[in-house]
Amino acid sequence: MMMFAVDPITNPVITGFAKQKPEDTPAIFAKFFSALIGALLIGASLWTFIQLLWGGMDWISSGGDKSKLEMAQHRITTALLGLFVVVSSWALYLIVLQFLGISPVGSSNFEFKIPTLF
């Protein structure tokens, strides 16, 4: 009787899990959670930018109407407050990770660097 080597069944959408061991589960979960936090931060920042643009356009198009002007100011104020909350929560997340001894990037030498053009 001939035995053929058969490839294991894999999921084409989720790759990279075929050769993982159960001991690797915390690292996989950490990568997933870190990517989820990053996606939420990007989404919140984009939403804040959209709200700022929307508030600015409302301000410009208010035409001297006091109620429209106040609504535009309120939209801009809440957008900036939301951005402050998002940045503060990200900073708190980094502080908690530092306290627990976990690196959010995957290396033990985490440094916060502000990107520059030159």
Mean pLDDT comes to 79
Rg measurement, Å: 23 Å
Anisotropy-based shape: elongated
* Unreliable residue runs: none
Estimate what percentage of residues fall within beta strands. Answer: under 5%
Instruction: Give the helices and strands as they follow along the chain.
Output: HH
State the separation between the terminal residues, measured CA to CA: 67 Å
Which structural class do you get from the secondary structure elements? mainly alpha
Helices, by number, come to 2
The helix content is 55-70%
Task: Describe the structure in your own words.
The protein is mainly α and 118 residues long. The chain is elongated and about 90 Å long. Helix 1 (25-60) packs antiparallel against helix 2. It has helices at 25-60, 66-100. It contains 2 helices and no strands. The longest helix is centred in the middle third of the chain and has 36 residues, at 25-60. The chain has a domain at 36-100.
Provide a brief overview of the structure.
The chain is an all-alpha fold and 118 residues long.
Topology summary:
Layout: H1 25-60, H2 66-100
Helix pairs in contact: 1-2
Q: What key phrases describe this protein's structure?
A:
118 residues; mainly alpha; 60% helix; 0% strand
